[in-house]
Amino acid sequence: MIKSKTKKEIKEPRITLVGAGPGDAELITIKGIKALKTADVVLYDALVNEELLEFAPEHATKVYVGKRSGDHSHSQESINKLMIDYALNYGHVVRLKGGDSFVFGRGYEELDHAASYSIPAEVIPGISSSIGVPGLQQIPVTHRGLSESFWVVTGTTMDGQVSGDLYDAAKTRATVVVLMGLRKLAEIVKIYQAEGKNRLPVAVIQSGSTDNEKVAIGVIDTIVELVEEKKIKSPALI
Question: Is 71 a catalytic residue?
């Protein structure tokens, strides 16, 4: 009897957005690791620890789609297209994003794009650097009697300006966490000085949770000089 050739297995397209945490590979969730172990393709960002790629199967395709300041080789539109193309042709795409996908990670844009192609998508949250990095430095974002809330604000908007939300945030008693704001530090300092908060404690943390971590701690009036002295560079959290 002649046996017929088995047809190539056709995998159902699906997408999983996985938050990789602030940088330390051990700060990803167990559920995130389980998703990586079943990936056919991993699309990973610039701030993702590449050690995490070792959890993906050997056969899985790993594609770097990182975007850094000044490097626009991977637009969001091209990432969206890659995500769909790989899902339709390979099966399970894990979109591995630094921090948490929904904290300045443009995760919902990618979910929305997947939905427009009727491709099922799942979200696995990650530890956001906005909370995790201060916590690792034993800096609480809320503290009884001092701060009843915290704001997470982008330092730089799409048009390259300081976020207008910072002017409102500087008026509150809340702890304010500024992401992507190192280049605007001098301008941010002026906003706080205008509110009379010259002695307000402030920390700037470079590459939190990684081997490249650097920390500058001072007050509003001294932080710019301290950051220059310690040669702190992006990515950094204020």
Answer: no
